Give the backbone structure.
Amino acid sequence: MRGIWHSEPMTDTADLLRDAAERATRYLAALEERPVTPSAAAVAALVDLGGALADQGSPAAETLALLDRCGSPATVATAGGRYFGFVTGGALPATVAAGWLAQAWDQNTALGVMSPATTTLDALALRWLVDVLGLPEGSGGAFVTGATMANISGLTAARNRQLALAGHDVDHDGLFGAPPLRVLVGGAAHASIFKALSVIGLGRSRVEVLPADEQGRVVADDLPALDRRPTIVCLQAGNVNTGASDPFEPLVAWAHEAGAWVHIDGAFGLWAAASRSRASQVQGVAAADSWATDAHKWLNVPYDCGAVVVADPTALPAAFDQQVSYLPVGDERDPARHGPEFSQRARGVEVWAALHHLGRSGVADLVDRCCDLAVRAAAGLRALGLEVHNEVVLNQVVFSAADDEATAELLGAIQAEGTAWMGPTTWRGRACVRLSVSSWATTEADIDATLAAIERVSARVE
Ligand SMILES: *Cc1c(COP(=O)(O)O)cnc(C)c1O
């Protein structure tokens, strides 16, 4: 019997990786032809992956073949050009390839001593990310799983700093005996801000809500008075429905006047800063204190990859560095000292690959192209007699049919038809459809095919 504990001869490994590459290539090539959502039969066939855990293992080639046979047909075609659900990027080929190589490296990117290559790439990628987003040079940061974790990390740094200034050490004493921390949040903030506030002990419900306008932007006049109490203000670049951003210049000035910390949730909207035509959407955002963003959304790298950036490079280590005797402190930048995770995959590799491959102008093109395609989609939807509810200032389009019932019926028909996929939302009390253009792979032809599909199904549901 050939025990699976023996390392496989190199030829087997080479064959296996070639097989994986061929399967992946076939998968991507077929995306254009298949419905965006998997068939019910493909989803039902996922049972073949399971059953009881086998006592005896299988050769790796068989494991991979089963995964491809059952897994691939049951995926959602988010890597293709016609998935407009949530805010979902498709991974750039350069980042998939770089990720494969990095997986073969199998580096733990916690400490410089564990991987000079990937910790260097991590630091380089962060520096380029800060640069392309126009954030302050010399900012600190960390790659994390996504914008939710980036919000948790940025708000942790904010909480600890604001309470330290009031004489309380959260790192040592927790929140017991701390003075109250005032938290102000925009009226159309993303759910992950509330999750973050609850996780870090600040509470989701004791926040003060800043009124927002009909696009979800905080209204900058009539702001509450701030004083010298410890305060955090959470603002947003890119509302998840409308794509609109808060007016940062007056809001940051108002907050900083009172010594408050300004945290920005810019999961996708922060990327407007890299654009040629939409940078004015986020004017003044660089004056904030911390930012959360995603690379797996608009930078189009594979999951999972978010980033937290903090203007003061000492603020993240102040919150997250734990001195432990067996952790040598070297000269290299140790990612584990800057964020919530210790062991971590080499997220910086794919970010580095995306930015190296695209360059500054390629990132601008990617963002601009998605925004232009959203404008094209909105015009086409209006021409079909549908109502577009937002100013299409970025890559998001919120639309509906005549009433909530007709909208739900239309959305169900679009999803079932299979050319494209988009999801439901509620915007200002109306049931709506949300269409987000966030992928490098989306073309004008994809938008036009999607509009044609909507026209076909509208005729049927009427
Ligand atoms: C997507 C999104 C998040 C959450 O990001 P994850 O990467 O899913 O954790 C937070 N805020 C906004 C505005 C978003 O669009």
Notes: The chain has a mean pLDDT of 95.
